[in-house]
From TrEMBL:
Protein name listed in UniProt: Serine protease
SUPFAM superfamilies on file: Trypsin-like serine proteases (SSF50494)
vWA-MoxR associated protein middle region domain residues: 240-342
Boundaries of every vWA-MoxR associated protein C-terminal domain copy: 370-603
Amino acid sequence: MTSAFRTEPRDDAIRHLRRSLVRLETADGDAGSGFWIGPGLVMSCAHVVPGGRVTVVWQGHHLAGEVSEAVPAARGRADEPWPYPDLAVISVPRAPEHDCVWLSEQRIPLRTPLFLLGYSSVYSAELKSHSAYGTFSGSHGDEDEMWRFVGDEIAPGMSGGPVLDLDRGAVCGVIKTSREINSERGGLLVPIRGVRALTEAARAHLWRAHDRHHATSAWVVLRRGLAEGALPGDVPTLDAGEEVELLELITRLEDTPDLRALYAEAVAPATGLPPEPITDVRQLCYLLADLLPRHGEPHPLLRLVHRLAAREPKPVADALREWAVRVAARRGEYDDFERWRRDAATAHTPAGDRPSIIVQVVPTALDSTRYLLTLWVRENGKRSVKTYCDDGQGRDVAAIRALLVRLLRPLLKRLEGWASIEFVVPGDLFDEDFENLLVGRYSRLGRTNPVVIRDLERLSDDETWHAWQTRWRSLRAGTGSAEWLACDDDPSPDKLDAGLRLRPEIAVLGLARQPRQYAEDALGVALYAGVPAALWSRDTCPEHQAGGHVGECSGAGFRRTVSRLLAGCELGELPDVIQRTRNAAAAGEEPSCTGVVLLWDDPERRPEPDAPLIELA
């Protein structure tokens, strides 16, 4: 009875798979297999199509494609198989409407039944689709890089074809190679999790296209059919429909948040690092979905989605909250979820949990255009550890920037990328764009990490410390407020200082244009009055410089955009908000915020100049 019950959903999955299979032809006449993974996107093996132009043959169409990425792009040793992950993604710009497979990065149990599909000429001179049935028999490689397939023949030409998990209705791998030609001894498969070796941009494009397509595809229905016959212990955390809905919402997030912090919040009060490095929100969702909820608490995945909603603007935030409530109710965790949400709303997250790298740049005594560089690392509330200290020679700004790139890369790697960067600099370097240092392959420092500047002079000015600490405490407690100076505002120092003294709750000063464009030193007055945070843009307000403008000026546009971004968050979240804003500006979504600067000064987090120099492992 069980076999008959599950036959029809499996047959549906195989039919869908066949409609996604393609044949690949290269310029030198070689042929192989591939399959549609998203609109205009084909996956295959790198050894089948290592690069260049490819002809994609599908249902009578001969389509022009090009390998957008292959990893690795070269074979390596000629006497060994193509190195892991041996995957290639092909872009087909003018593809007609077509089916796409459902991909899964999840690991599968031993003896999972598998269906393999590809093209082969093993039984005729003409390439025809060729299938194989077998099972997963374990991994191969130190890091479970490859999967072993047994029970049937992998024929020549099938490399690059899809591997279907018949229990879950998901393509879980790619056919790599047979163990022995013309035998039933199986071969090796590349698990879909190998896509994590793609570049960040390629991986994000792949999953965005895949997840948006499947929000309305027929794979949900067939996966539900397979789930109906599953054993009680195999029932997933989410229904297939809930899963695709969440994944589609993730594609609409404005930016990648602090993944390690989100993981810690979702599994709290448990401690420790995630069991594997987390590269994106999608992976984090699946990592949490595999966990079990503690008694009396909602599932960690629901907690994650609630945290994501708190960071997003409408309507995505509303859709995430509605999804979490609906799934909690379906799982019987609604009361636990609502109780946790109320408790979380009143809880205060202590400052300083995130490690920080403190970069101090001090002008030399004899030449104010040359600087001395010192770096500290502060982790888990511990004392700062000095990791680099300049001698007395000094460097110009260009040399400081080049040295920072070399010093920050290993520190960020050691901290797994999860660190804020604090630049303690004199006022004449406030507009130096340290956040644009290229410390990764593609992204700038301020887009991968929260980057703030701090006032070097105030650290040694004890006269301002009491007001500074008082305003900082109100900011962290959520009772502080923000005050803006518009482009037309130009108060005298006395008037601005008096206004700030009358309102000790002001914790953030926003400047609609560059600080030096104001006739008086408005920023200096605010810092002396103890204001711990300030926002401005490095871009000028050309309309006010020229005079006689009509309508909204650039500075007003910057103020309006930042105010909108801050409306849905607490002031204490400013470093993370500005990190997202920098990404949005670079992506062209918030052009008025290009060059946004955040001064963020915690009076209790000071460099420790007497700390010994320690070379971190």
